[in-house]
Amino acid sequence: MHHHFLLHKPNGYLSQFIYEKKRHKKLLGELYNFPENTMAIGRLDEDSEGLLLLTTDGMMSEIVRSKTVEKEYYAQVDGLVTEEAVEQLKNGVEIGFKGIRYTTKNCEAKRITELPDCIGEGRRIRDERHGPTSWVSLTLTEGKFRQVRKMTAAVGFPTLRLVRIRVGSIHLQNLKAGEVLEVSHFQITE
User: Which residue has the higher pLDDT, 110 or 126?
Assistant: First the structure.
């Protein structure tokens, strides 16, 4: 029988259980006593946070990582994001990936004025004296390395904080940073 988990990954943790390099890093196993052979489905960077699905079922991992499953991110960006920038994000922007130029696929993008409670305070990004920030939602079906950060930077609004709030039809809900919820299965589509 397989085990499935929802995790609100906090900032500062790697999306893995083993880290072979010399520097000490915070790993997922420090957050919960996961069963043997648990794996993260996809990744969130060390400095990103939000919904991470974990499972002992490798086939489930393949399904979730497919190009048909939407992943929604809330990005806090430097400056007041413009409607023009949001349109550029929707229509695809050019980013670097593995040393080559890549144009992202069309996606859903919109400005966010009210944040859900699950976003929480997060770590302090910077002082208000350094200028305003704003939030944008991006819903993607692809996931290149640091793609959301590269996309917002490409339209002139670098990401300061990044939170994944949804994978398919699974939402972050009311999970607080560091909380784990075991579920019987993943309902990816509604």
Answer: 110
Location of structure tokens 């980013």: 95
| Catalytic residue check, 47 | no
Q: What is the pLDDT of residues 137-177, one digit of tens each?
A: 999 998 888 999 999 999 999 999 999 999 999 999 889 99
Name the token pair of 166. 């949804």
pLDDT digits (tens, 9 = 90+) for 28-49: 999 999 999 999 998 899 999 9
Can you list the alpha helix ranges (DSSP code H) found in the chain? 58-64, 83-91, 147-154
pTM exceeds 0.90 = yes
Please count the CA atoms within 13 angstroms of the CA of 120 that sit on its side-chain side: 22
Which amino acid, 175? L
Tell me how far apart the terminal alpha carbons of the chain are, to the nearest angstrom.
24
> Which listed residue (45, 47, 117, 127) is catalytic?
45
Q: Residue 77 in contact with residue 139, Cβ under 8 Å?
A: no
Cβ-in-10-Å burial (0-12, 13-18, 19+) of 116 comes to middle
Burial group, residue 163, by CB count within 10 angstroms (0-12, 13-18, 19+): buried
What is the token pair recorded at 7?
């995790």
